[in-house]
Task: inverse folding
């Protein structure tokens, strides 16, 4: 049977990579000579570390062990056996936490970006509007994408450690073994963003650092717990609120090998146990929690390359995304139930992604219906059960038989409904939606043999009249991303109307500056004008959303604090507001970082 298309068009990070030319290699990035900031001696804290050119090449290709073929051996040698599945790992150049150079001195601001007849400084954008008191000026990262130190301090392997080594999985053949080494450089990173006036950092905890073997009956890695305790403490001492996601897609490899990860119901208890451990360790020091990052994207990936792993009994490639969704939402609800029973101080939700969409052709009822399908499959799949009904959207149950999408019991519905304290959305883009070319009815009646089934809708990145793009395109490494700021207000209204809450966080927005990964001169890299435009436009639209549309948005987080390992794109596509030299690990503020700082200084309530 053809690969289930449930979340098709959504395999953003992985699919995109498959079509790319892989001629940009990690070696070519790591091999560039060290670049120095023109003003680094006076303004940028420098880290003098020399990192050897990358020597690890992706030699993978071994098939993932069949479910149950690895015995549960929670000893150090059992852990090594799990690492053997991954293969050799690159060691970091140092293994202790670096003490930052403080105070951080910011560089002088960049020259104005706009001509004098525009609002030419960030502070001049909607100068009369302020964000509400308590609004979070946030930056976002995720453990796998920035930490590096992948085999240090007792961490177990995760599925990204494995997947990144599969042939052609990552366009530049890079791994995240080192990336930014934020695991040992978090103080430097926090100090640098605190100097910008950032008030929150949305970070994730790596499950395999806390439970190297993943399961509830396996040992806790105290070093991992202590590490994040210090990370959290340092954030708070620096005035940067730590916001924690429990699962940003870095699945402990052990759980995939033992029982098929999220394709098995066994994951629920193990996740809840992990969540409880982390809640009780950091209770009172973290106020805002997320159980899962973008569960839809995660579940769409479990069945496809490079995660073409073995599944739990009874699950196959076609049903895996839905089985994953079913187990994941129960794991979310279980963790929230525990959070409330344990009286953990704070708030909790999960991070949705994507958008509702706008009908492509105004007078075509099929396009309006396609928007409903898009909203249901992309956001409603998790948001309807949690915020509205306790159950899957009707569009899903009308389309997918129970052997694809398991149905909830009465008790499960009860547990799921209301299991979030606010709404969180990664609001990168919002686009037009059309019915599939073959027509909505044809797609639905063709069923699984139709490549567009079960979603039966298409994304359109240009208008239907004159083919004007929805917005300026990001780097070719992120072909899914355009600057669609002009749709942001209507997107936020739609979200608030369909999944009402008293509080919304925009948990990720961000832009991959075109060509940035190919540039070598620091002064060109720092001039990330498209990213700056994107961020300023989105933040301005959010101000209008709050003041004109009365949408209760209480925080905005920019992806990403630093350049990061961008899934299938590896290190070749950059999202950071700070440049990271992957040879020296030196960080440099880009224009966007400086303008963000000025923007928030002018628009936050004191
Ligand atoms: C959202 C994901 O949460 C993050 O992991 C990813 O790197 C960014 N989007 C950019 O693609």
Result:
């Amino acid at each position: 049977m053809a690969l289930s298309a449930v979340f098709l068009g959504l395999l953003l990070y992985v699919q995109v990579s498959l079509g790319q030319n892989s001629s940009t290699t990690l070696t070519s990035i790591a091999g560039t000579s060290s670049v120095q900031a023109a003003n680094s001696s006076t303004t940028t804290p420098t880290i003098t570390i020399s990192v050897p050119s990358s020597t690890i090449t992706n030699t993978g290709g071994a098939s993932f062990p069949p479910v149950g073929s690895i015995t549960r051996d929670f000893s150090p040698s059992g852990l090594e056996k799990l690492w053997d599945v991954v293969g050799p790992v690159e060691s970091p150049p140092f293994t202790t936490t670096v003490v930052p150079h403080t105070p951080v001195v910011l560089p002088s601001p960049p020259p104005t970006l706009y001509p004098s007849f525009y609002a030419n400084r960030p502070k001049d954008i909607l100068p009369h509007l302020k964000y509400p008191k308590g609004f979070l000026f946030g930056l976002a990262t995720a453990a796998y994408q920035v930490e590096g130190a992948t085999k240090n301090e007792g961490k177990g392997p995760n599925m990204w450690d494995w997947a990144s080594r599969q042939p052609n999985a990552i366009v530049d053949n890079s791994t995240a073994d080192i990336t930014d080494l934020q695991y040992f450089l978090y103080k430097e990173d926090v100090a640098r963003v605190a100097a910008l006036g950032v008030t929150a950092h949305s970070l994730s905890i790596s499950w395999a650092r806390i439970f190297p073997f993943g399961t509830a009956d396996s040992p806790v890695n105290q070093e991992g717990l202590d590490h994040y305790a210090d990370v959290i403490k340092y954030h708070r001492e620096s005035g940067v609120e730590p916001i924690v996601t429990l699962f940003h897609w870095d699945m402990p490899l052990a759980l995939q090998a033992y029982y098929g990860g999220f394709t098995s119901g066994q994951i629920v208890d193990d996740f809840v146990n992990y969540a409880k451990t982390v809640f009780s360790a950091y209770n009172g020091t973290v106020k805002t929690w997320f159980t899962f990052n973008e569960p839809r994207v995660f579940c769409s990936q479990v069945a496809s390359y490079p995660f073409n792993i073995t599944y739990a009994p009874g699950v196959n490639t076609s049903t895996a995304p839905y089985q994953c969704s079913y187990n994941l939402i129960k794991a979310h609800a279980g963790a929230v139930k525990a959070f409330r029973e344990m009286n953990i101080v704070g708030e909790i939700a999960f991070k949705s992604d994507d958008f509702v969409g706008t009908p492509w052709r105004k007078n075509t009822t099929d396009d309006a219906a396609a928007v409903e399908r898009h909203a249901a499959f992309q956001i409603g799949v998790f948001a309807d059960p949690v915020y509205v009904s306790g159950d899957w959207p009707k569009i899903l149950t009308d389309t997918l038989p129970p052997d694809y999408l398991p149905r909830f019991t009465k008790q499960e519905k009860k547990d799921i409904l209301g299991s979030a304290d606010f709404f969180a959305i990664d609001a990168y883009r919002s686009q037009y939606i059309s019915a599939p070319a073959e027509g909505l009815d044809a797609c639905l009646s063709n069923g699984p043999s139709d490549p567009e089934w079960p979603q039966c809708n298409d994304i359109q990145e240009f208008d239907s009249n004159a083919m004007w793009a929805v917005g300026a395109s990001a780097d070719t490494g992120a072909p899914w991303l355009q600057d669609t700021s002009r749709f942001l207000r209507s997107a936020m209204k739609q979200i608030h109307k369909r999944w009402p809450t008293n509080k919304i966080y925009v948990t990720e927005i961000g832009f991959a500056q075109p060509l940035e990964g190919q540039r070598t001169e620091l002064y060109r890299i720092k001039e990330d004008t498209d990213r700056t435009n994107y961020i300023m436009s989105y933040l301005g639209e959010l101000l209008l959303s709050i003041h004109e549309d009365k949408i209760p948005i209480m925080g905005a987080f920019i992806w990403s604090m630093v350049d990061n390992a961008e899934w299938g794109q590896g290190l070749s596509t950059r999202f950071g507001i700070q440049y990271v030299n992957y040879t020296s690990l030196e960080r440099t503020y880009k224009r966007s970082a400086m303008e963000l700082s000025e923007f928030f200084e002018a628009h936050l309530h004191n």
User: Anything to note?
Assistant: The CA atoms of residues 359 and 365 lie 9 Å apart. The longest strand covers residues 241-247.
